[in-house]
Amino acid sequence: MSTVNHHPESAMLVDFSGGNLATAPSICVSAHLHFCSQCRNELLRLDQVGSNLMSEVEPTEVGDHLFDSAMSQIDQLPESDTAEVNNTSDMVDSRYPLLVNKLINSSESVPKWRRLSRWLNVAQVTTGQNEYEVALHKICAGGKTPRHNHGGQEFTVVLKGSFSDEHAVYKEGDFLSCQPGDVHQPLGAQNGECICLSALAAPIKLSSPFGFLMKPWLRINPM
Amino acid sequence: MQEVMIKVWQKSASYNPAKASATTWIYTVARNCRIDMLRRKSNTQYLPLENEYFWHEADEDTPVSLMRQKRSEDKVQSCLSRLPKEQGEILRKVYLEGKSHAEASNELGLPLGTVKSRVRLALQKMQILVAPEFRDEVL
User: Which residue did the predictor score with more confidence, B51 or B96?
Assistant: First the structure.
């Protein structure tokens, strides 16, 4: 039985099942599915809805040449490759979803940790889209991150360890969705570092009186 | 369509009837082909990933899981045709027209919350979404 307590809302899973969710939120949902058997089973049932609706569609006639052309392309297919990850980064962890390790090992740009504060490091990953900044966040054991306000949506999946905020404790596999205007202060658990994957649609605003001074460092850079 | 046929051929060895029916599996192959096609058509940057890395298979591979899978498939099939028109209409927009909840809401001139609640009601009728405390009983 899954020990994950926080899940994406049903609308997100439906959009994911229909293939209509944007790339960055899809990456976060997919990372959550790696840890959550409940949502994997829910997704299977949603796919059954899609398959039943697809079966309702009136068949369309196609020419014989289409079949011949498909068969000729099948004959020329190369041997399929395996989904193994060749590590080029020490950030890769065998417990992470394959998708996340693939992103970390992207040949486009290997992510590197950048220190944002004493407690918080960030490493941006390349995802080939321009709506969300997708990054790994590392909160040190017992670390306090600044209290902040969300300017846009943010989706977070805990990959390792745990953190808490004013609302709940988030453990491995938990999915957190922040909406514009939400305010919180994530705190790392005392017993070890916490690593999260997040997709951020707009810069956060720090709630402290001098938070505006940090503005240049909080810009987002979707890539 | 040609691309879907080729993918079905290519992936046929990975198909496991205990995890999903053939039509559900073909649906997932077709959906992934569509996502790949849309990504290629858009001018976004190169995605360093194969679309298939996004998807996970259901866990179990046992006679019990096969029975559950069949029961759930039957439930979905029998409920789908009996859904109120407005609920079925939104599900068709999502699954057949490739519209997100937000796009369906714009197109139908309905608040996003109404679209979400109609979909949620439809999924509850099909027992796809259930209260967490009952999830294991239904699975």
Answer: B96
Q: Which of residues 128-147 of A touch B (CB under 8 A)?
A: 128-130
The encoded tokens of residue A75 equal 């004959």
**Percent residues over pLDDT 90 in chain A:** 44
**Which tokens sit at A113?**
């940790």
Of A212 and A114, more confident:
A114
pLDDT bin (cut points 50, 70, 90) of residue A79 is low
B40 contacts in chain A (CB < 8 Å):
none
**Domain end: B35, B61, B87, which one?**
B61
One of 3.40.50.1820, 1.10.472.10, 2.60.120.10, 3.90.105.10 is the CATH number of A1-77+94-223, namely: 2.60.120.10
pLDDT recorded at residue A212: 60
Q: State whether B53 and A53 contact (CB < 8 Å).
A: no
Answer whether B72 sits within 8 Å of A53, measured CB to CB. Answer: no
- pLDDT band of A194, cuts 50, 70, 90: very high
d(CA A57, CA A62): 15
Assign A94 to helix, strand or coil: coil
Instruction: Out of B10, B30, B49, name the one closest to residue A77 (CB).
Output: B10
Query: For residue B84, how many C-alpha atoms fall within 13 Å in the half-sphere facing its CB?
Result: 10
Domain ranges, ordered by start, for chain A? 1-77+94-223
**Least confident interval from A69-73, A192-196, B112-116:** A69-73
Do B51 and B106 lie in one domain? The reply is no
Pairing state between β A148-150 and A169-170 = unpaired
Residue of A14, A69, A128 with shortest CB distance to B94? A14
Is the ipTM higher than 0.85? The answer is no
Alpha helices in chain A (DSSP H): 10-17, 23-35, 37-56, 64-75, 98-104
pLDDT of residue A86: 63
The sign of the dihedral angle between the CA atoms of B13, B18, B21, B26 is negative
Kindly provide the b/e burial profile for residues A115-147, where b requires at least 16 CB atoms within 10 angstroms of the residue's own CB.
ebeebbbbbbbbbbbebbbbbbbbbbeebebbe
Q: And the tokens for B64?
A: 């019990």
